[in-house]
Specification:
The chain is built from nine helices and eleven strands. The protein is of the alpha/beta class.
Length: about 260
Protein backbone atom coordinates (compact mmCIF):
# COMPACT_ATOMS: atom_id res chain seq x y z
CA UNK A 1 0.00 0.00 0.00
CA UNK A 2 2.83 2.41 0.75
CA UNK A 3 3.93 2.18 -2.89
CA UNK A 4 0.63 3.68 -4.07
CA UNK A 5 0.77 7.43 -4.63
CA UNK A 6 -2.43 9.09 -5.76
CA UNK A 7 -2.52 12.59 -7.24
CA UNK A 8 -5.74 14.58 -7.62
CA UNK A 9 -6.15 16.52 -10.87
CA UNK A 10 -9.09 18.90 -11.36
CA UNK A 11 -9.79 19.66 -15.03
CA UNK A 12 -11.49 23.01 -15.66
CA UNK A 13 -12.11 25.20 -18.71
CA UNK A 14 -14.09 28.34 -19.40
CA UNK A 15 -15.67 27.19 -22.69
CA UNK A 16 -18.43 24.95 -21.33
CA UNK A 17 -21.18 24.52 -23.93
CA UNK A 18 -23.99 24.57 -21.35
CA UNK A 19 -22.57 27.08 -18.86
CA UNK A 20 -19.62 29.14 -20.16
CA UNK A 21 -17.29 30.43 -17.46
CA UNK A 22 -18.70 28.19 -14.73
CA UNK A 23 -15.33 27.31 -13.05
CA UNK A 24 -15.12 30.91 -11.84
CA UNK A 25 -18.76 31.10 -10.73
CA UNK A 26 -18.81 32.79 -7.31
CA UNK A 27 -20.33 30.50 -4.69
CA UNK A 28 -20.19 31.58 -1.04
CA UNK A 29 -17.35 33.96 -1.86
CA UNK A 30 -15.12 31.46 -3.71
CA UNK A 31 -14.87 30.38 -7.38
CA UNK A 32 -16.43 26.96 -7.93
CA UNK A 33 -13.11 25.41 -8.94
CA UNK A 34 -11.60 26.59 -5.65
CA UNK A 35 -14.38 24.82 -3.73
CA UNK A 36 -13.42 21.60 -5.48
CA UNK A 37 -9.70 22.11 -4.88
CA UNK A 38 -10.18 22.75 -1.16
CA UNK A 39 -12.38 19.68 -0.76
CA UNK A 40 -9.66 17.57 -2.37
CA UNK A 41 -7.14 19.01 0.09
CA UNK A 42 -9.45 18.23 3.01
CA UNK A 43 -9.39 14.57 1.99
CA UNK A 44 -5.75 14.50 3.03
CA UNK A 45 -4.92 11.40 0.97
CA UNK A 46 -3.45 12.90 -2.20
CA UNK A 47 0.24 13.30 -2.98
CA UNK A 48 -0.63 16.39 -5.08
CA UNK A 49 -3.76 18.45 -5.73
CA UNK A 50 -3.62 20.48 -8.94
CA UNK A 51 -5.98 22.24 -11.35
CA UNK A 52 -5.44 21.46 -15.05
CA UNK A 53 -6.68 24.18 -17.40
CA UNK A 54 -6.07 25.88 -20.73
CA UNK A 55 -7.40 29.24 -19.52
CA UNK A 56 -5.28 31.98 -17.97
CA UNK A 57 -8.29 33.33 -16.02
CA UNK A 58 -8.60 30.04 -14.16
CA UNK A 59 -4.84 29.83 -13.63
CA UNK A 60 -4.75 33.32 -12.10
CA UNK A 61 -7.72 32.64 -9.82
CA UNK A 62 -6.35 29.36 -8.46
CA UNK A 63 -2.82 30.68 -8.00
CA UNK A 64 -4.33 33.67 -6.19
CA UNK A 65 -5.53 31.25 -3.52
CA UNK A 66 -2.15 29.52 -3.35
CA UNK A 67 -3.16 26.55 -5.49
CA UNK A 68 -1.12 24.56 -8.00
CA UNK A 69 -2.00 24.81 -11.71
CA UNK A 70 -0.84 22.94 -14.82
CA UNK A 71 -1.49 24.61 -18.16
CA UNK A 72 -2.69 22.20 -20.86
CA UNK A 73 -3.59 22.26 -24.54
CA UNK A 74 -6.89 23.96 -25.49
CA UNK A 75 -7.51 21.24 -28.10
CA UNK A 76 -8.49 18.35 -25.82
CA UNK A 77 -11.87 16.81 -26.77
CA UNK A 78 -12.62 15.55 -23.25
CA UNK A 79 -11.66 16.19 -19.61
CA UNK A 80 -9.80 12.88 -19.33
CA UNK A 81 -7.50 13.93 -22.20
CA UNK A 82 -6.65 17.09 -20.23
CA UNK A 83 -6.01 15.06 -17.08
CA UNK A 84 -3.77 12.65 -19.00
CA UNK A 85 -1.60 15.52 -20.29
CA UNK A 86 -1.31 17.07 -16.83
CA UNK A 87 -0.50 13.72 -15.16
CA UNK A 88 2.78 13.50 -17.10
CA UNK A 89 4.19 16.13 -14.76
CA UNK A 90 3.67 14.14 -11.56
CA UNK A 91 5.49 11.25 -9.95
CA UNK A 92 2.49 9.15 -8.94
CA UNK A 93 1.12 5.67 -9.52
CA UNK A 94 -2.55 6.68 -9.83
CA UNK A 95 -4.61 9.76 -10.62
CA UNK A 96 -8.05 10.82 -9.42
CA UNK A 97 -9.87 13.10 -11.85
CA UNK A 98 -12.22 15.38 -9.87
CA UNK A 99 -14.28 17.32 -12.36
CA UNK A 100 -14.21 21.05 -11.71
CA UNK A 101 -18.01 21.21 -11.35
CA UNK A 102 -18.23 18.58 -8.55
CA UNK A 103 -18.65 21.38 -6.03
CA UNK A 104 -20.39 19.22 -3.39
CA UNK A 105 -18.07 16.21 -3.34
CA UNK A 106 -17.40 15.10 0.24
CA UNK A 107 -13.76 14.66 1.32
CA UNK A 108 -14.67 11.36 3.00
CA UNK A 109 -16.02 10.06 -0.31
CA UNK A 110 -12.77 10.97 -2.03
CA UNK A 111 -11.08 8.85 0.63
CA UNK A 112 -13.30 5.95 -0.47
CA UNK A 113 -11.85 6.27 -3.94
CA UNK A 114 -8.28 6.23 -2.63
CA UNK A 115 -9.03 3.14 -0.54
CA UNK A 116 -10.48 1.38 -3.59
CA UNK A 117 -7.26 2.09 -5.49
CA UNK A 118 -5.14 0.81 -2.63
CA UNK A 119 -7.17 -2.41 -2.45
CA UNK A 120 -6.86 -3.13 -6.18
CA UNK A 121 -3.98 -1.06 -7.58
CA UNK A 122 -3.61 -3.11 -10.78
CA UNK A 123 -7.09 -2.17 -12.09
CA UNK A 124 -6.98 0.34 -14.96
CA UNK A 125 -9.88 2.64 -14.03
CA UNK A 126 -12.55 3.43 -11.44
CA UNK A 127 -15.60 5.75 -11.36
CA UNK A 128 -17.67 7.03 -8.45
CA UNK A 129 -21.36 6.05 -8.56
CA UNK A 130 -24.39 6.70 -6.38
CA UNK A 131 -28.07 5.70 -6.29
CA UNK A 132 -30.62 7.71 -8.22
CA UNK A 133 -32.84 9.75 -5.92
CA UNK A 134 -35.74 10.60 -8.25
CA UNK A 135 -37.26 8.94 -11.29
CA UNK A 136 -36.94 12.15 -13.31
CA UNK A 137 -33.15 11.72 -13.23
CA UNK A 138 -33.55 8.87 -15.74
CA UNK A 139 -34.21 11.42 -18.50
CA UNK A 140 -32.26 14.44 -17.20
CA UNK A 141 -29.34 14.98 -19.65
CA UNK A 142 -27.30 16.73 -16.94
CA UNK A 143 -27.22 13.48 -14.97
CA UNK A 144 -25.00 10.84 -16.56
CA UNK A 145 -26.23 7.35 -15.69
CA UNK A 146 -24.65 3.94 -15.90
CA UNK A 147 -25.58 0.28 -15.60
CA UNK A 148 -23.59 -1.73 -13.07
CA UNK A 149 -22.99 -5.48 -13.14
CA UNK A 150 -23.43 -7.75 -10.13
CA UNK A 151 -19.65 -7.69 -9.76
CA UNK A 152 -19.49 -3.89 -9.57
CA UNK A 153 -18.30 -3.16 -13.11
CA UNK A 154 -19.78 -0.37 -15.20
CA UNK A 155 -20.75 -1.68 -18.63
CA UNK A 156 -22.87 1.08 -20.21
CA UNK A 157 -23.31 4.86 -19.78
CA UNK A 158 -25.93 7.22 -21.13
CA UNK A 159 -27.65 10.52 -20.40
CA UNK A 160 -31.14 9.15 -21.06
CA UNK A 161 -32.68 5.99 -19.61
CA UNK A 162 -36.26 7.25 -19.89
CA UNK A 163 -37.33 4.25 -21.99
CA UNK A 164 -36.99 2.09 -18.89
CA UNK A 165 -39.21 4.33 -16.80
CA UNK A 166 -41.42 2.36 -14.43
CA UNK A 167 -40.11 -0.96 -15.76
CA UNK A 168 -37.31 -0.82 -13.20
CA UNK A 169 -37.84 -1.89 -9.60
CA UNK A 170 -37.15 -0.04 -6.35
CA UNK A 171 -34.14 2.25 -6.49
CA UNK A 172 -34.01 1.92 -10.29
CA UNK A 173 -31.39 -0.82 -9.97
CA UNK A 174 -29.06 -1.56 -11.69
CA UNK A 175 -29.00 2.02 -13.02
CA UNK A 176 -26.86 4.42 -10.99
CA UNK A 177 -25.90 8.05 -11.20
CA UNK A 178 -22.32 8.32 -12.46
CA UNK A 179 -20.31 11.06 -10.82
CA UNK A 180 -17.59 13.25 -12.26
CA UNK A 181 -14.92 11.59 -10.14
CA UNK A 182 -12.82 9.02 -12.00
CA UNK A 183 -9.52 7.35 -11.16
CA UNK A 184 -6.92 5.73 -13.35
CA UNK A 185 -3.69 3.84 -13.07
CA UNK A 186 -1.07 6.36 -14.17
CA UNK A 187 0.26 4.24 -17.05
CA UNK A 188 -3.28 3.67 -18.32
CA UNK A 189 -3.65 7.41 -18.92
CA UNK A 190 -0.86 7.28 -21.50
CA UNK A 191 -2.77 4.53 -23.26
CA UNK A 192 -6.03 6.51 -23.04
CA UNK A 193 -4.48 9.31 -25.11
CA UNK A 194 -3.81 6.84 -27.93
CA UNK A 195 -7.36 5.43 -28.00
CA UNK A 196 -9.53 6.69 -30.87
CA UNK A 197 -12.71 8.49 -29.89
CA UNK A 198 -15.69 6.16 -30.01
CA UNK A 199 -19.25 6.50 -31.38
CA UNK A 200 -21.07 6.62 -28.04
CA UNK A 201 -18.48 8.93 -26.50
CA UNK A 202 -18.93 11.35 -29.39
CA UNK A 203 -22.71 11.07 -29.47
CA UNK A 204 -23.26 11.87 -25.79
CA UNK A 205 -20.00 13.54 -24.68
CA UNK A 206 -19.32 10.93 -22.00
CA UNK A 207 -15.61 10.26 -21.38
CA UNK A 208 -16.32 6.87 -19.80
CA UNK A 209 -17.74 5.51 -23.05
CA UNK A 210 -14.30 5.61 -24.66
CA UNK A 211 -13.03 3.33 -21.90
CA UNK A 212 -15.97 0.93 -22.14
CA UNK A 213 -16.10 0.80 -25.95
CA UNK A 214 -12.45 -0.27 -25.98
CA UNK A 215 -13.26 -3.20 -23.63
CA UNK A 216 -11.36 -1.75 -20.68
CA UNK A 217 -12.75 -2.59 -17.21
CA UNK A 218 -14.24 0.36 -15.33
CA UNK A 219 -15.05 -0.34 -11.67
CA UNK A 220 -17.92 1.45 -9.93
CA UNK A 221 -17.08 2.85 -6.47
CA UNK A 222 -20.15 3.63 -4.32
CA UNK A 223 -20.17 7.13 -2.83
CA UNK A 224 -22.36 8.26 0.07
CA UNK A 225 -24.64 10.31 -2.14
CA UNK A 226 -24.78 11.59 -5.69
CA UNK A 227 -24.66 15.27 -4.91
CA UNK A 228 -25.44 17.57 -7.82
CA UNK A 229 -22.66 19.25 -9.76
CA UNK A 230 -23.19 22.54 -11.59
CA UNK A 231 -23.59 21.85 -15.31
CA UNK A 232 -26.29 24.41 -16.09
CA UNK A 233 -27.36 27.77 -14.58
CA UNK A 234 -30.58 26.20 -13.19
CA UNK A 235 -28.51 24.03 -10.86
CA UNK A 236 -26.83 26.93 -9.03
CA UNK A 237 -29.81 27.52 -6.71
CA UNK A 238 -30.06 23.81 -5.90
CA UNK A 239 -26.38 23.67 -4.92
CA UNK A 240 -26.77 26.81 -2.83
CA UNK A 241 -29.65 25.09 -1.05
CA UNK A 242 -27.48 22.09 -0.16
CA UNK A 243 -24.72 24.35 1.16
CA UNK A 244 -27.30 26.17 3.29
CA UNK A 245 -29.44 23.27 4.55
CA UNK A 246 -27.49 20.00 4.39
CA UNK A 247 -25.56 19.44 7.67
CA UNK A 248 -22.78 17.47 5.95
CA UNK A 249 -22.30 20.25 3.41
CA UNK A 250 -22.44 22.93 6.08
CA UNK A 251 -19.65 21.22 8.03
CA UNK A 252 -17.40 20.86 4.97
CA UNK A 253 -18.07 24.45 3.88
CA UNK A 254 -17.08 25.82 7.29
CA UNK A 255 -13.91 23.74 7.32
CA UNK A 256 -13.05 24.89 3.79
CA UNK A 257 -13.58 28.55 4.52
CA UNK A 258 -11.38 28.26 7.62
CA UNK A 259 -8.37 27.10 5.55
Amino acid sequence: MSSVQVAAIIPARMASSRFPGKPLLNVQGLPMVEHVRRRALLCGRFSDVVVATCDREIEEAVRGYGGKVVMTSPKHPAATDRVAEAARQFNCTHVVNIQGDEILVLPRDLERMVRAIEENPSAPAWNAVAPLEEGKELEDPSVVKCVISSGGKIFFCSRNFSALGEKLGPGWEPVRRILGILAYRRDFLDRYLTLPRTPLETAESIDQSRILEHDIPLLGIPFTRGYLGINEPREVAVVQGYLRDDPHQQAVLQEMLAR
